């Protein structure tokens, strides 16, 4: 009986041992599975973060280059490639960043101004830079004098850029060979006499700044004409050490009378200036203008009719901070002799050789690079659509 009890005890102990071994193996298997599953989860999370990182980088770079959503695009790795007329263009290239060809984008004004305010610290360019003049047209719709401008630009394609701010969605009816083809920028509605007019001017300026080749920026309307040929205009502007923004103190209700004391202490009465809406700026001044938020916000809040921001903001801002870089005059001739809120308009009956010559040589003397000159106006307004035909016939005096 004692032997039998020893045998039963021995078998029971073995069963217990086997049971413990089995549990140990089960725990080991479960531990392995837990570690394996945790590794898979960590791997998936890490992979997701890495993909989001690179996708966001590509999105940021794509935003900086402001590619249009209207243009068919493919994917090349992490970089969007724009295809236009079966030609692929690398969005990471310096050429695309410096000279964007497509003016359509979905940036808000704040995003646009931030992007346009970028200015390189390095003075040397990584390419052969030929400075261009940006011609910025502010119009409600058609450009009735467009054939004259097309003739003016002909043969100088590498020396200018064109930007048109028209009604939202408006497209100029021009051929694909015209320098105005697809040069409309994303626009917003504009009302005369309100801050929306100054908004449109800044919008034109910011879009033009996206092209690093643009060095000078001239604001024009649909009723403007050039009074010299392209070479004369280009050399005059590119060679100038100053911008051309009219800025003067007018101690009447049409000048100081429009000042609001609510602009204190940032803008004081003695700093207040008035000037023509039709400005010309060099690149350094243009970057400073679209980078300003503080003073422009004051004008949006307190320069209300009968105060007009397009007549006071730039003259005042430049007077306060960049007076030494401004000539305090405009290069666009206008006739205010008739009085009233709008200048004289000239039509077919007014246009002649003598009339154009009188604009060129009207007895005015001005400063150009610290020297006196009689060439003070490069453009003129206002001209009605009926003036187009006689202007096109004045090739002898227009020289284009």
From TrEMBL:
One of its GO terms (cellular component) is membrane. InterPro entries: BC10-like, Glyco_trans_14. It comes from the Eukaryota. Its main location: membrane. It is a single-pass type II membrane protein. Pfam families: Branch. One of its GO terms (molecular function) is glycosyltransferase activity. The chain crosses the membrane at residues 21-45. It is found in: Membrane. Keywords: Glycoprotein, Glycosyltransferase, Membrane, Transferase, Transmembrane, Transmembrane helix. This is Glycosyl transferase. The lineage of its organism: Eukaryota, Viridiplantae, Streptophyta, Embryophyta, Tracheophyta.
């Amino acid at each position: 009986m004692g032997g039998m009890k020893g045998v039963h005890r021995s078998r029971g102990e073995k069963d217990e041992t086997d049971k413990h071994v089995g549990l140990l193996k089960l725990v080991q298997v479960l531990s392995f599975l837990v570690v394996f599953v945790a590794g898979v989860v960590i791997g998936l999370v890490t992979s997701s973060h890495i993909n989001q990182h690179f996708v966001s980088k590509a999105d940021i770079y794509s935003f900086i280059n402001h590619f249009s959503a209207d243009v068919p695009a493919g994917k090349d790795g992490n970089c969007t490639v724009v295809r236009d007329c079966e030609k692929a263009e690398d969005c990471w290239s310096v050429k695309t960043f410096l000279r964007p060809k497509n003016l359509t984008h979905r940036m808000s004004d704040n995003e646009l101004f931030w992007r346009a305010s970028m200015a390189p610290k390095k003075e040397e360019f990584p390419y052969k830079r030929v400075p261009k003049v940006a011609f910025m047209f502010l119009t409600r719709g058609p450009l009735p004098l467009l054939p004259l401008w097309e003739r003016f630009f002909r043969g100088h394609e590498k020396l200018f850029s064109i930007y048109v701010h028209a009604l939202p969605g408006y497209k100029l009816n021009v051929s694909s060979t015209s320098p105005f083809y697809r040069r409309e920028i994303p626009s917003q509605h504009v009302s005369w006499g309100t801050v929306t007019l100054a908004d449109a001017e800044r919008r034109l300026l910011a879009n033009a700044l996206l092209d690093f080749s643009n060095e000078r920026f001239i604001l024009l309307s649909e009723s403007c004409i050039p009074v010299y040929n392209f070479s004369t205009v280009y050399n005059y502007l590119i060679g100038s050490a100053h911008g051309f923004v009219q800025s003067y103190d007018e101690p009447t209700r049409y000048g100081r009378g429009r000042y609001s004391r609510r602009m204190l202490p940032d803008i004081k009465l003695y700093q207040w200036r008035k000037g023509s809406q039709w400005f010309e700026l060099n690149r350094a001044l243009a970057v400073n203008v679209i980078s300003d938020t503080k003073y422009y916000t004051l004008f949006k809040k307190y320069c209300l009719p009968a105060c007009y921001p397009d007549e006071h903001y730039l003259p005042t801002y430049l007077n306060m901070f960049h007076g030494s870089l401004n000539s305090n005059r405009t290069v666009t001739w206008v006739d205010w002799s008739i009085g009233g809120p709008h200048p004289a308009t000239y039509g077919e009956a007014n246009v002649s050789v003598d009339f154009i010559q009188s604009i060129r040589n009207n007895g005015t003397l001005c400063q150009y690079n610290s020297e006196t000159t009689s060439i003070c106006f490069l453009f003129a307004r206002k001209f009605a659509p009926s003036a187009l035909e006689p202007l096109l016939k004045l090739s002898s005096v227009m020289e284009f």
